[in-house]
Specification:
The complex is a heterodimer. By secondary structure, chain A is an alpha/beta fold. Chain A folds into 2 domains: 45-93 and 201-270 and 362-434, 3-Layer(bba) Sandwich (FAD/NAD(P)-binding domain), CATH 3.50.50; 132-197 and 272-360, D-Amino Acid Oxidase, subunit A, domain 2 (D-Amino Acid Oxidase, Chain A, domain 2), CATH 3.30.9.10. Helices cover 28% and strands 24% of the residues of chain A. In chain A, strands 1, 2, 8, 9, 10, 11, 17 and 18 form an 8-stranded mixed β-sheet that branches. In chain A, strands 5-6-4-13-14-15-12-16 form an 8-stranded mixed β-sheet. A two-stranded antiparallel sheet of chain A has the order 3-7. In chain A, a hairpin with a 4-residue loop joins strand 14 (299-303) and strand 15. In chain A, helix 3 (60-71) packs parallel to helix 8, helix 3 packs across helix 11 (389-402) and helix 4 (105-119) packs across helix 11 (389-402). The longest helix of chain A has 16 residues, at 143-158. Chain A is globular, with a radius of gyration of 22 Å. By secondary structure, chain B is mainly β. Chain B has one domain (3-80): 2-Layer Sandwich (Folate-binding fold). Helix content of chain B is 9%, strand content 33%. In chain B, strand 5 (64-70) and strand 6 form a beta hairpin. The model of chain B has no long low-confidence stretch (mean pLDDT 91). The A-B interface holds A 257, 259-260, 268-273, 317-324, 326-328, 361, 417-418, 430-433 and B 1-2, 13-15, 19-22, 34-35, 38-39, 41-44, 46-48, 51, 53, 69, 71-74, 97-99.
Chain lengths: 435, 99
């Protein structure tokens, strides 16, 4: 772009150190020399007065968008503005699950695109994100639910995605912890997506930040956006706690707080903010090597490599921006946990936390242009944003670079609501607290 | 745990109620057009601060209540019947709460 002066302060460019290529060989050599050769993974940039693209929000989607803009679309005049430090928002607050087991064809394609990107992510970023395709297992407890899950699995297989039915016995063999004949909701079987699994969430933030920084993106931490500048219908930049920053394109990637940022540009969104809780138990020896979801409620659990059981349930169910949860949901999640896996009843919960999320009116995300020219929205991730980080980043970068939706994300535009083309996986309607 | 003081039943746990969302919307006139109805059906207030919202006392009197609640502190300022028109407090946000 030409209208914005290119006045990068010396501090910023001098600060741009390469962290070098990571490898087993380098780890070995560093081990011999006292680990003194490592440099910081990404540069702490000082913001310039203007960029071609400013991304608000240094979480998974913001960082991934910046990385793919630079790496896939050749746009490196990009800044990512993060209110706090990298990695403390929702990208570090989720339960780390990846999968593409959806029913609606548009959703299956989008999340499968993401899963494929996860499969090649570590090589692409040269960063160990601990992508572990240990499988995700959805249990069913009634005949009707078997039909529903079979229908979903058939849709996935029609689209070339793996889905495998498991008998009761196969479920028991895979997850000995499960009580098949629990009094209220006996397990009748399950569907397994072997390519699903978990990823170390912090490493996703760090890996994308490092790779984006290396590709020339400015990662600006402790820089809160306080206003969005417009010239008529066109965005011209953002006001921040570190001064005015001009931009041709401003991309909001602040899921949880999209409504607040959009309001700065005079927009109202089809979003409510809700809190989702997550829990980690004390560490135990390996007992669970697959992600399991309980079908008679809302409960999902996996075991981290540190040994803690990581689990969660439903959203608390009313508008909130408090990053904490309330007890009724914690109690319900615990009840579901011990119903499904009585053997874990004596485990202590080590940590509990909450993350604020954008709940949309159809339960699907938004990757879209807005009524303000040059203002792009990546948000509305409901409780499924983590698994979508690579696809969200790639398709948002495509939308910014090409000014046209990426084919696998074309159904996620804001215009779908007025047009009656909502993407409502569960068929619930505009009641976010019920999605 | 929220404690909601139902005007008919008294103070009860949140588990007796079902949340029904933004109560600041009103149905547009029949000839208001597509944009107005799209906004009515899909757009929400979603305030970070004082919020006007519906709660259905499903485990009690089954009345629909209009509640003024703060979305950071969860403090409930007022609970009234569906026909009431409470005004939202205009105080500034406690910035550090809930972070």
């Amino acid at each position: 772009m030409n209208s914005v002066p290119n006045s990068r302060p010396i501090a910023s460019s001098a600060d741009r150190v390469s962290s070098g290529r990571y490898s087993g060989w380098r780890l070995f050599l560093e081990g011999l020399t006292g680990q003194r050769g490592w440099s910081r993974a990404w540069a702490k940039a000082v913001p310039r007065s203007g960029y071609r693209v400013v991304i608000v929000g240094g979480g998974g989607h913001g960082l991934a968008t910046a990385f793919y803009l630079a790496a896939e679309y050749g746009i490196t005049d990009v800044a990512v503005l993060e209110k706090g430090p990298i990695g403390l928002g929702n990208v570090g607050r989720n339960t780390t699950i990846i999968r593409s087991n959806y029913f609606l064809p548009d959703n299956v394609r989008f999340y499968e695109f993401s899963l494929k990107l996860w499969e090649g992510l570590e090589r692409k970023l040269n960063f160990n994100a601990m992508v572990s395709q240990r499988g995700t297992l959805n249990l069913f407890h009634t005949e009707a639910q078997r039909d529903l899950f079979t229908r979903r699995a058939n849709m996935m297989r029609l689209l070339g995605v793996d889905a495998e039915p498991l008998s009761r016995e196969a479920v028991k063999a895979l997850v000995p912890l499960v009580d098949l004949d629990n009094g209220r909701y006996p397990v009748l079987g399950g569907f397994l997506q072997r390519r699903g699994g978990t990823v170390r969430h912090d490493a996703v933030a760090w890996g994308y930040a490092r790779a984006a920084s290396e590709a020339g993106v400015d990662i600006v931490e402790h820089c809160e956006v306080t206003g969005i500048r417009r010239d008529g219908h066109r965005v011209t930049g953002v006001e921040t706690t570190r001064g005015l920053i001009a931009a041709d394109t401003v991309c909001l990637a602040v899921a949880g707080h999209s409504s607040q940022l959009a309001e700065m540009a005079g927009l109202r969104l089809p979003i409510e903010s809700h809190v989702l809780q997550a829990f980690v138990s004390e560490a135990i020896k390996p007992v669970l090597d697959v992600v399991v979801t309980y079908g008679a409620g809302h409960f999902y659990v996996s075991q981290s490599d540190k040994g803690g059981l990581v689990f969660g349930g439903a959203i608390d169910g009313y508008n909130t921006y408090g990053q904490r949860g309330t007890l009724p949901v914690a109690q319900e999640v615990a009840a579901e946990a011990v119903t499904l896996m009585p053997g874990i009843a004596r485990l202590k919960v080590l940590r509990q936390w909450g993350g604020v999320m954008d709940m949309t009116m159809d339960g699907s995300p938004i990757i879209s242009r807005t009524a303000v020219d040059g203002l792009i929205l990546n948000g509305g991730w409901c409780y499924g944003g983590f698994k979508a980080i690579p696809a969200g980043g790639m398709t948002t970068a495509h939308l910014i670079a090409r000014n046209a939706p990426h084919p696998v994300a074309a159904h996620l535009g804001l215009d779908r609501f007025a047009a009656g083309r909502t993407v409502d996986e569960r068929g619930i309607g505009p009641f976010p607290y019920a999605h | 745990m929220l404690r909601i003081r139902c005007p008919w039943c008294g103070e009860r746990d949140e588990t007796e109620f079902r949340y029904r969302g933004d109560a600041s919307r009103s149905r547009p006139a029949g000839d208001a057009g597509l944009a107005a109805f799209t906004a009515y059906a899909y757009e929400r207030e979603n305030r970070r601060g004082w919020h006007l919202e519906w709660w259905l006392h499903v485990g009690g009197c089954r009345q629909l209540l209009k509640v003024v609640r703060h979305t950071l502190t969860h403090e409930i300022r007022s609970v009234g019947g569906a026909e009431e028109q409470p005004s939202l407090p205009q105080e500034s946000l406690p910035q550090e709460v809930g972070r």
